Amino acid sequence: MQRSDELFDAIALPPHAARALSVLGEAGYEAWCVGGFVRDALLGRPCADVDIATDAPWRDVQRAFEAAGWRTHETGTAHGTLTVVDEGEALEITTYRADGAYTDARHPEAVSFVRTIEEDLARRDFTVNALAYHPARGILDPYGGRADLEARAIRAVGDPAKRFSEDALRILRACRFASQLGFGIDADTYAGMMANKNQLLRISAERVTHELECLLLGEHVREALMGTVDVLAAVLPELVACKGFEQRTPYHIYDVLEHTARVVQGTPPYPLVRWAALFHDTGKPAAFFQDPEGTGHFYGHAKISVRLAQCAMGRLALSPAFVGRVLTLVRYHDDVVEPTSKSVKRALARLGGDVELFRALCDLKRGDALAQAPQCAGRVALADELDAVLDGVLEADEAFTLKKLGIDGRDAMAAGIPQGPDVGAALAAALDAVIDERVPNERGALLAFLDAWRAGRAADCAENV
Fold first, then answer.
1. CA-CA distance, 68 to 89, in Å (whole number)?
2. For the segment 15-71, what is each residue's pLDDT rounded down to a tens digit?
3. Domain tRNA nucleotidyltransferase/poly(A) polymerase RNA and SrmB- binding spans what residues (predicted)?
4. Which of 304, 300, 303, 298 is nearest to 249 (CA)?
């Protein structure tokens, strides 16, 4: 990173943000770009959203922008916020304000408007977010945000305990910033997070889920999970048993928590696989036992992990369909799938024919292998082979679901199989035969198979009479 004094003279503003500052300046008002845009610009990170703070009351802001030909929307005027739009680009303009008392651990009961940008920045959560910028005036940094950017530290503005008791969501925001930015959390700030983590139970599931997902998708998620697990335990208590739980197996060199954190880090950053990685081994502490030689075993841990994941995600604002797919990955993450067409098609059938889910399973297996003992690294190549075999199966348009079978229920009934459960059983048996390559996926061969299946079923029934 460049030194701060080399950075602070020239931040490239998006054209619509520069025009907005000009509109306010020409109307006689003070205005600054504030918050995350300034932070990310100094770090060289992309950031599309620009927020502007001004000393102008929102009605004056509205008059100034409408006179300049901009459209305006009264999106948050009770808190001094007006949205302005120019050439399809929207900006939020907010009057300098201070927050009143917090009674729900999230929102101030009221806000009061203040005269200076310094007073406005004082209400912000972290010093790296309490920065303001104007092209003519440079950086305003009343709380040491520049130094904390260079030190790669997350530090609360003012008294940490007060900051987090006001708005408990800031606790998860700190964890999320640690994951996204790779910053450490200041010791006093972390102590304030720990002292107030019980307040997270008052935060809506939607807000908690958003912050957790952003954390999971962060570039530095391993360090963040390891460094903030005691705080995250308030919303993900399933992680507590994983911390420090030694696996005592030649296949693992990390405890369950660090293994988990490394698996999450080792998977591509998309929600499905990272949520599955987070939960895939949570059942290990409950399943653990040692054999007479002292080696650890975890038989059945995937089923326990599914139960724990189901409980955890039930508390969060994740869609039932998404949760179902995550649970499927957790259930099958340890299944052995050989790099053969038959084995891959069998796995696809277990996954309901969901090709994307199979790809995610391969991603999870790769991440899992990278987080085990060094001698397990070869399993990454196995996951790569599975992906390649899947490519071949798809290219050949091979059958692995009933939809791809060369016959359907009408054919089964025309072959003399009575309507009802027997039709489904017959088609499932036919699909098994096709997957095992005992019968080609051709109509004539499949009808012959159904005749034999029906005859066999009739013979079984006769024996049981």
1. 15
2. 999 999 999 999 999 999 998 999 999 999 988 789 999 999 999 999 999 999 999
3. 182-239
4. 298
Residues 298-312 pLDDT 10s: 999 999 999 999 999
* Cβ neighbourhood burial of 379 (10 Å; 0-12, 13-18, 19+): middle
Judge if 22 and 93 occupy the same domain: yes
Residue with tokens 């705080």: 231
Q: CA 39, CA 21: separation in Å to the nearest integer?
A: 18
**C-alpha span between 239 and 248 (Å, rounded):** 19
Which residues neighbour 401 within 8 Å (Cβ) at sequence distance 6 or greater?
348, 349, 352, 353, 431
Residues 122, 253, single domain; the answer is: no
Tell me, what amino acid is at 427? Answer: L
Sign, CA torsion 189/261/248/297:
positive
User: Is residue 156 domain-resident?
Assistant: no
Domain hosting 191: range is 161-234
User: To 10 degrees, the CA torsion angle through 227, 233, 235, 237?
Assistant: 140
Total of domains in the chain: 4
- Say whether both 335 and 383 belong to one domain: yes
In angstroms, the CA 287 to CA 155 distance is 39
243 and 359: one domain?
Answer: yes
pTM: 0.91
Tokens 């054999």, located at residue: 291
Question: Rounded to an integer, what distance in angstroms lies between the CA atom of residue 276 and that of residue 89?
Answer: 37
Cα 104 from Cα 188, distance rounded (Å): 23
Asked if residue 199 is part of any domain, the answer here is yes
Neighbours of 444 (CB within 10 A): 10
Do the beta carbons of residue 121 and residue 140 sit within 8 Å?
yes
